[in-house]
Design goal:
mainly alpha, two-stranded antiparallel ribbon, disordered C terminus
Length: about 425
């Protein structure tokens, strides 16, 4: 009896130990599984976060504004592609953990909705995006190289044209020689300037190509088409005014008592004070020029108006725009140093000298505006008769006759009134 009890007790202990070992083995089994499931969920979450950020970066539109910027984009993309090898190792680790989980015949992970299949699909999608972006960058680099060629083509012509504008203005501004020689040189330059308008047209076409390609910066030149067009127009206007001024001076030699040496002195002094070669003087420069020419302009007391200089400005700068143009200055100087025109023939010859070739029997509004201050030109235009069958032609002969007739009547009336008094 005692023996049976001992036997059964030993058997119970042995079975209990065996069960304990089975339970411990099961616990270790599920503990390893739990660890693998948790590890997979963690790694999958990290991989998916990286994948989403990478996919977002790869899906950005490839658009740059320069070749250099495109090269930087290419370098960033190359660095990213090189980093994929490390990510591939992390992906292999995921595959290994997934294989462990599958060895437990477990197909659902309670810690994540990610599966190896979805992650593999994402990885393949990423590789396709990498290839597509690589092609996009190639296309963008090709586009930017074409844009850079456009920039350089425009810059080459723009810089050349800007240099020509500067050189031509310097040549015209520093023109020397007799009045006839100056007139001939400026006339040639004026013709050259007009011909250069076609070159500006070519630049405008290149600029239009740049605008169409959405190119708004150019490191190869500081000159925009708007600035160059303004400079060309300014040079054209400046040369035309200068040419008309020279013609006026030549006409003044024949109709007044001023000689060429005096006209040269006036011109030299004007150019001396026209530091920026703009063809005009501000009031301070004009006053200094007059004093250099011997004008007695006393310095007013502090707080007092400069009446003597203001009286001169009333004649020269009637519109008070703050500047004295060369033609206004020369007209003032000639009027101060010459005798008045005394007959219609002299005045008619003066108007004839202002015409395009100095020999037309009529004059146009544009020729008057080019040679005179605006208010004086308008005065003549409003009072000159239009010539039939000559578009824009104005009769300066009848105008001078009327002008002298009016002056004669005024003088007669003045004399009559004086006698009556």
């Amino acid at each position: 009896m005692h023996f049976r009890i001992d036997f059964r007790w030993d058997k119970l202990i042995a079975e209990s130990e065996a069960r304990r070992k089975k339970l411990l083995a099961a616990r270790d089994h599920f503990s390893d599984l739990e660890k693998s499931l948790s590890q997979f969920a963690s790694l999958a979450s990290q991989f998916n976060g990286w994948y989403e950020n990478a996919e977002e970066d790869l899906s950005e539109i490839v658009f740059t504004t320069s070749v250099d910027e495109c090269h930087r984009l290419r370098d960033d993309h190359t660095n990213f592609v090189e980093s994929l090898s490390k990510k591939r190792e992390e992906f292999k680790e995921l595959e290994e953990v997934d294989a462990i989980i599958r060895s437990y015949h477990v197909h659902v992970n309670p810690y994540t909705w990610f599966t190896m299949d979805t992650l593999e699909d994402g990885w393949q999608c990423l590789l396709r995006s990498v290839k597509e972006r690589d092609l996009d960058i190639d296309r963008e680099l090709k586009r930017q190289k074409q844009n850079d060629d456009l920039r350089q083509a425009y810059a080459k012509q723009a810089n050349s044209f800007a240099d020509w504008l500067k050189t031509t203005k310097e040549h015209v501004s520093t023109n020397k020689g007799s009045l006839e020689e100056q007139r001939n040189l400026i006339q040639r330059k004026s013709d050259e300037i007009k011909k250069k308008r076609s070159f500006l047209g070519e630049l405008e076409e290149l600029s239009a190509h740049l605008e169409k390609a959405m190119i708004f910066d150019n490191k190869y030149t500081p000159h925009s088409i708007v600035t160059l067009a303004q400079q060309w127009d300014g040079l054209d206007q400046f040369t035309r005014r200068l040419l008309q001024n020279i013609k006026t001076q030549i006409a003044a030699q024949g109709t007044t008592g001023v000689d060429e040496d005096e006209l040269k002195e006036f011109t030299i002094m004007f150019k001396h004070f026209d530091k920026d070669r703009s063809g005009r003087l501000d009031h301070t420069e004009f006053k200094a020029c007059l004093r250099s020419l011997g004008f007695d302009l006393p310095v007013p007391a502090e707080g007092e108006p400069d009446r003597a200089f203001e009286a001169i400005l009333d004649v020269v700068d009637r519109d008070r725009d703050g500047f004295i143009r060369l033609e206004e200055y020369m007209q003032f100087m000639i009027s101060r140093t010459t005798e008045n025109v005394t007959n219609t023939e002299d005045l008619a010859e003066a108007f004839q000298a202002l015409t395009e070739n100095g020999d037309k029997p009529y004059i146009t509004a544009s020729e008057l505006y080019a040679a005179m201050p605006p208010e004086q030109a308008k005065y003549c235009i409003d009072r000159m008769d239009k010539i039939p069958d000559v578009p824009g032609g104005l009769d300066y002969h009848s105008f001078t006759a009327k002008l002298f007739q009016s002056n004669a009547n005024t003088s007669l009336n003045s004399s009559t009134m004086s006698g009556t008094a």
